[in-house]
UniProtKB/TrEMBL annotation:
It holds the Pfam family PhyH. Its cofactor is Fe cation. Gene3D superfamilies: q2cbj1_9rhob like domain. This is Phytanoyl-CoA dioxygenase.
Amino acid sequence: MSFSLSVTPTPPLVLPVTNPISLTTADIDAYRTNGYHVVPNLLSPSQLEQWRTIIFNAVQDRAEKKYKFATVLEEDHTNVDLDYYDNVFTQRVNLWQTHPSVKELLLESGSVIGKIAAELEGVDCIRIWHDQALIKESFGNPTAWHLDVPYWSFNSLHAISVWIALDDATVENGCMYFMPGSHKVTERHFHESNETFPEIKISKNLSDIFMVYPELKKYPTIPVPMKAGSASFHCGHLIHGAGANMTPGRRAAMTIQMMPDNMVFNGKQNILTKEQMDELEVGVSVFNDDERNPVLYRKN
């Protein structure tokens, strides 16, 4: 799916890049019960405009390339039914690698976004696994139910993502949906499957996830509409998806996928280049390279 955004030149970064946010014990307890936490007004109006300018410029710079490196292969390691998936959203991965302003923006957000992620997951260090701009174009297809970490190049029960609304996300234009508590079911399967997650490709069939987790078919689902500048955090093994965009306007979001320190390579390519794959040893190599997986937050 092609798209266009009107952009302005990227000005110097203005600090702070997020509002100050503090979690309560109740916030953390609810996250661990439900698997997600919503932060209204993570960004002030001026901060939101800065994020939009930087992200949209980076997306334009990337043009039609999903990844920076051709050696990641533009083939898809996660999705099937690619004609359908290409109309789910415009996806640009690891913009921090192509646009210095995105890297600066994300790293400056770490004292808030990274700290929230670390506190929700109860870890001392949070690194960037990758980022993604996700732009659900007008009349874009829904995003099928899935969980994230089975597709990633490490196994962890403490992976976490933040989803930042750059436009108002509504039920009509494809807001996120969560399946509260489903992370406890997928965690049980993880332990029963020798500390691995079964991988199921994301397809046009919303219900494919239930082939692996049939007990979740009776779980309630929650739409999470958000005003632009708000954000949601969800754990990497929570079942989630997004609705179709039933409007003539787009719905843009910026996401950061995060991991704890000392994650070990599990053999999956995901966003890795062929050269990186050749360098890594399954069960031995650790993703602690500050150049490839920058620290977003480390507890003092």
